Amino acid sequence: MSGVAAALTLSSGAWFSPGNQLLQAVVDLDAQLGDQAPVTFFNNQLNLVVQEASGFLTMSSFTLSSWSQLAEMNVRRLLILLRRLALREGMTYVFQPNDTTLWRRVQRRFEDVLGNLFLQGAFAGSTQGESFQVTTDSSVNTPDTIEQGQFIVEISIAPSLPLEFLTVRLLQEGGDLTLSEES
């Protein structure tokens, strides 16, 4: 299954679900689970591999997250990709003066990166404004946070699934860069 997810990521993007994918070179399933297995597995967020006429395939792509917004593997993988991009891009700005020039430069850079992902189909919405938002202004960078040596970037996204906004907060404090996910 890791190979299926990796191949799909390389060919299409991390935001595509590895569920319901035909598995190559599988010849048999070891366990006979019975007719209720698909429902039981689905209700418990477990991913079942079944044999169909066309071959073996996965029935779902759940994570074990109790947070419904992260239940689908493609949403979780998209957030992992965004976390990696935020860390990579954020390191460029670690020792820059924390002023409005930095705020605008960081906002434009993240909007460019997210805009490219939007064009590739990573987000829901018909426009970039419906798909993501990057906030670097005084609403997140208050005088108190600046005085504490912090620079905050909030990135809100609407993944293809679910059709809700998730927020990733990038916080630069001194030489450290941290990320958090919020509802």
Give keywords.
single chain, 183 residues, alpha+beta, 2 domains, four-stranded antiparallel β-sheet, 6 helices, 6 strands, 19% strand
What topology does this entry show?
Layout: H1 2-11, H2 37-43, E1 49-52, E2 55-58, H3 73-90, H4 100-119, H5 128-131, E3 132-135, H6 143-147, E4 150-157, E5 166-173, E6 176-182
Antiparallel strand pairs: 1-2, 3-4, 4-5, 5-6
Largest β sheet strand count, sense and barrel closure: 4 strands, antiparallel
User: Beta fraction of the residues?
Assistant: 15-25%
Overall structural domain count: 2
Total helical segments: 6
From N to C, what is the helix and strand string?
HHEEHHHEHEEE
Radius of gyration: 20 Å
Tell me the distance between the termini.
29 Å
Low-confidence stretches: none
Number of strand elements: 6
Protein model, in words:
The protein has helices spanning 2-11, 37-43, 73-90, 100-119, 128-131, 143-147; strands spanning 49-52, 55-58, 132-135, 150-157, 166-173, 176-182. The longest helix is centred in the middle third of the chain and has 20 residues, at 100-119. It contains 6 helices and 6 strands, in the order H-H-E-E-H-H-H-E-H-E-E-E. It is of the alpha+beta class and 183 residues long. The model has no long low-confidence stretch (mean pLDDT 81).
